[in-house]
Structures are given as structure tokens and as C-alpha cells.
Design a protein that fits this description.
single chain; 475 residues; mainly alpha; 2 domains; 76% helix; globular
């Protein structure tokens, strides 16, 4: 026994972590250029594309964080969370026309094509902030899990988890990340449904669960501040436009393949999300009054037997790593390709690759510090998005849909986005979901206001080249 785990469970977890490092060093010898590190070498299949996009999405926020909030808030949070599955349809309409950005390696490259140097530098800096925050959220979840099951201190468990995923991402590049994303995807899809169905049977099915839940968790009370909170959950309908997602889209062969992948993910996501929400309800019915940080761990400890428990923990570590390593890979390329290469154009491919790997180590260290001082997983994720969505959401969405303007418009949209975020944060007393929404509204006002004002003044705007905007292939 080690902590709350049997030797078999510990062996499964250790085997998984060691396997990740073996894959990383195996793939390291195949990587010679920054492009291979970023997008791989050659095309990817639709299956791998589905797995790697979905694995990038599945994170501690969308799993452990969701369970925590459903446990605490019940139906109020669950409805908004489940409705968020429609985001994949929106993304299939917005982001799948990747042919217009052929040759781009990162989101900063895309923003440079759309808005010039201002777009590249602002998004590059914002990418670093966003990535550190998302990686820190995964590290925080690892800390909670290792503390609960292994009795390891919070700082030590965070350092161990981040060290493994940092080495894994730094040496393996996107191919190692994509390869283990497939394994992580399969493990998670076996562990979560098995545990959830067993627990649901134990609580007496859906009918028994309903009877045991408090009224606050099965009714939708929208009085006072709860109404504003519920409306703010529309944040789950915002298409994912972070650097890791754009990088995954650029891996795609074509529009048709990416559209198909998005639709497949939507149908895979819905049943899994329902089960994740069910876990929060089940633990609330069986064990009310627990510390929300350890709700998911309590569920795993109570309902899974030896062996399957180790598989579930490995699956959860996989979820955290698949998100963290994706963002580590993305931000390291931003540091090397979009920042260092622009400052020192004479850098060779080998030097650029070395900078990317060193950046991964540095970002991992920054994430450890932020994770150690963070309050909660979901709260941390919402906080860092205040430094991203107001600066990029409207701008990149409009660009993918064919809207073209100049750098002045982009800068004005960023300024108004920051103003909107600060205004929202001031009104509610902190940066969370509402301030993200007001920031996006401010960004939209700034962007389209500045664009059409310049047209009214006679400023000539760039036109979309027909060769870049290819007809969307519908399936």
C-alpha cells in the first residue's frame, strides 16, 4: 500500500508515466526542425485528429472542475455545462476553412496574416499568459490527486506532475503529444463510463438519485445573482480559439476532414459530459458536505476496485497531461518561432528547436508557482481567459470567416476589449465569466466601430484574396 492505493494501482500509474517519457525520447530523434516539432511530418488521420483535438479540450477544468461545480451548484451549473456541447457545431462553421492559412505554424502566424505585426506580438504575449494559466490548472489538479491518494504534499506532487509532462512535451514534440493523446482518449473513455454506471447502480438508478438529492440541486433557481451567474455560463458556448486548438486545426489535411472531426467530437462529447455531471450529483447524494477539491477523488476511491482505480487515476493524469502538454508545445513554439526568430532572424533550425525546448522548461516552472498559489481549478481557468478572449476571440473568428481589416482596427479592438474586461471585473468585484463576456463585447465594439469609421473616413482596407478564401467543403 502507498497512501490510499494498492501496489497494483501504483504500478499502473508509474507504468503510464514512464511510458510517456519513453515515447517522448523515442520521438525526439525524429524531430529535426521547428515545423516537425509543431505540426509533425506529413498528414494525420481523422482518428488521430479527433483524439488529439478532444484530448486537448479534456482537462482538469472540464472534468474534475465540472464535478466540483455540479456537486456545489447542482442543476444550475449542469444545464449550462451540457449546453456547451453545441460549441463543436459552431467551431465546424467558423474554424474549419484552414486552407486560407497554409504555411502558418502557430496562431501568431495566422494573426500576422490577418492584422500584421501588431496581431503577431499581442497574441504571442497573450499566448504565454494563457498557457501558463491552463498548465497551472492541470498542475493544481495533479496536486489534489496525488495529495489525496498518495499522501504527498501539494508542492511535491505538483512538481512531479509538471516535471514529467514538461520533459515529455519538450523532447517529443507534437507527434509524441498526438500519439499519447490517442492512448489517453481510449483510457479515459473506458474508466469514466465504467465507474459512473457502477455508482449509478449503487445509488438506485436515476430515480433513486433524484430522491436523494437536495431540492437546491434538482431545481433551477434563477433569483438574484444566480440569474447573472447562469447567463454568464454562456462562456461554454464560446468557440475554443486558443493557440493549441488553432495548432491542431493547422495539422488537418483539409476543410472536409476538420469539419468531420468536429462533428464526431460533438457526438463523443455529449455522453461523456453527461456522465461527468452525474458523478457530481452522485457524490452529493451519497456524501454531502465534502471539501469540493476532493469530490472526484472521493468518487474514485469509493466506487472503484483495485486495478480499475489505478486505471482511472492514470486516465485522469492522462487528461491533465494531454491538455498541459498541448499548451506547453504551443507556447514553446510561440517563444521560439514567433518571438526569438523575429528578434534573431539568423537562428538555425537546430537553435530554434533548442529554444523551444528550453522555453518548455521555463513555462513549466512558472506554472508550478502559479498552481501552488491558486485557489481553485475552474476559478483559475476563468481568470486567465480574461487575458485572452477579449484580445483574440472576435479578431480570429472574424478572420476565419473572411473579414479583413488593418492593424489599427485590431489595436482598437484590443484596447476596447481590455476596457470591457476591467469594467465587468469592477461591476462584479473580480475577473471571472462575466468580465470575459463584457471584454468580448468591448472588443467587438472596438473592432467593427474602428473598421467602419475608417471606411467612412476613406481609409482603404485590405481585400480578401480569392485564392486564400477557398469554398468551404460541406459534409
Amino acid at each position: 500500500m502507498l497512501g490510499n492505493l494498492a501496489a497494483l494501482d501504483v504500478g499502473i500509474i508509474v507504468a503510464y508515466l514512464v511510458g510517456c517519457l519513453v515515447v517522448a525520447f523515442w520521438k525526439a530523434s525524429e524531430i529535426k526542425t521547428i515545423k516537425e516539432y509543431t505540426l509533425g511530418n506529413g498528414s494525420v488521420s481523422t482518428v488521430v485528429l479527433v483524439c488529439t483535438i478532444f484530448a486537448t479540450y479534456l482537462s482538469s477544468t472540464s472534468t474534475i472542475g465540472t464535478v466540483e461545480k455540479v456537486y456545489s451548484l447542482g442543476m444550475l451549473f449542469a444545464i449550462g455545462r451540457v449546453a456547451g456541447v453545441l460549441v463543436w457545431l459552431l467551431m465546424a462553421k467558423i474554424f474549419t476553412n484552414v486552407e486560407q492559412f497554409q504555411g502558418c505554424l502557430t496562431i501568431s502566424d495566422v494573426m500576422y496574416e490577418l492584422y500584421g505585426s501588431a496581431g503577431r506580438w499581442i497574441v504571442a504575449v497573450a499566448s504565454i499568459f494563457l498557457s501558463v494559466g491552463i498548465i497551472a490548472a492541470q498542475a493544481l489538479a495533479m496536486g489534489h490527486m496525488f495529495t489525496y491518494f498518495l499522501g504527498i504534499g501539494k508542492l511535491a506532487s505538483i512538481v512531479i506532475g509538471v516535471a514529467v509532462l514538461t520533459i515529455y512535451s519538450a523532447f517529443g514534440g507534437i507527434r509524441a503529444v498526438a500519439l499519447t493523446d490517442v492512448v489517453q482518449f481510449v483510457v479515459f473513455y473506458v474508466a469514466i463510463p465504467s465507474a459512473c454506471l457502477f455508482a449509478l447502480h449503487d445509488v438506485g438508478g436515476l430515480g433513486g438519485l433524484y430522491q436523494k438529492l437536495p431540492e437546491s440541486h434538482v431545481t433551477l433557481n434563477l433569483e438574484g445573482e444566480r440569474l447573472w451567474f447562469f447567463l454568464s455560463l454562456s462562456i461554454f458556448l464560446l468557440p475554443f480559439n486558443g493557440g493549441s486548438f488553432i495548432q491542431r486545426f493547422l495539422m488537418s489535411n483539409n476543410t472536409k476532414q476538420l469539419t468531420r472531426a468536429m462533428k464526431i467530437i460533438m457526438f463523443l462529447h455529449l455522453p461523456l459530459l453527461l456522465m461527468i455531471c452525474l458523478i457530481g450529483f452522485i457524490v452529493q447524494a451519497q456524501s454531502p458536505g465534502l471539501d469540493p477539491r476532493f469530490i472526484f477523488m472521493t468518487f474514485v476511491d469509493k466506487y472503484l476496485c483495485t486495478g480499475l482505480k489505478g486505471l482511472m487515476i492514470a486516465g485522469m493524469i492522462a487528461v491533465m497531461m494531454s491538455t498541459a502538454d498541448s499548451w506547453l508545445n504551443t507556447v514553446s513554439v510561440v517563444c521560439a518561432h514567433d518571438i526569438a526568430k523575429r528578434w534573431i532572424p539568423s537562428l538555425t533550425d537546430r537553435q530554434e528547436l533548442l529554444i523551444a525546448r528550453l522555453s518548455t522548461m521555463l513555462i513549466g516552472g512558472m506554472s508550478i508557482v502559479l498552481a501552488f498559489h491558486a485557489v481553485g481549478i475552474v476559478e483559475l481557468s476563468w481568470f486567465v481567459r480574461n487575458f485572452w478572449n477579449p484580445l483574440t476571440f472576435v479578431q480570429i473568428t472574424a478572420g476565419f470567416l473572411g473579414f479583413r481589416t488593418n492593424g489599427v482596427t485590431f489595436v482598437m479592438s484590443c484596447i476596447m476589449g481590455i476596457v470591457g474586461t476591467c469594467a465587468g471585473g469592477y461591476m462584479v468585484g473580480g475577473l471571472a465569466t462575466i468580465s470575459v463576456g463584457t471584454g468580448i463585447i468591448g472588443s467587438a465594439v472596438g473592432m467593427f466601430g474602428a473598421h467602419y469609421l475608417q471606411l467612412w473616413w476613406g481609409v482603404r482596407m485590405p481585400k480578401l484574396e480569392e485564392k486564400l478564401l477557398k469554398t468551404r467543403v460541406r459534409v
